[in-house]
Amino acid sequence: MKELKLMKGNEAVAEAAIRAGCDGYFGYPITPQSEIMEYLMYQEPYKTTGMIVLQAESEVAAINMVYGGASCGKRVMTSSSSPGISLKQEGISYIAGAELPCLIVNVVRGGPGLGTIQPAQSDYFQSTKGGGHGDYRLLVLAPSSVQEMADFAGLGFELAFKYRNPVMILSDGVIGQMMEKVELAEQQPRFTEAEIRENTPWATMGKPNDKERNIITSLDLDSHKQERHVAHLRDKYLEMEENEVRYEEINCEDAEYLIVAYGSSARISQKAVELARAKGIKVGLFRPITLFPFPKKPLLAYTNRIKGILTVEMSLGQMIEDVKLAV
Amino acid sequence: MTEEIIIAGFGGQGVLSMGKILAYSGIMQNQEVSWMPSYGPEMRGGTANVTVVLSDERISSPIINSYDTAIILNQQSMDKFVSTVKPGGLLIYDPNGIIHHPERKDINIYTIEASEAAGKLGMMKIFNMIVLGGFLKLKPLIQPEFIHKGLEKSLPVRHHKMIPENEKAIDIGKDLIKAVQLV
Question: B42 with B76: CB under 8 angstroms?
Answer without folding.
Answer: no
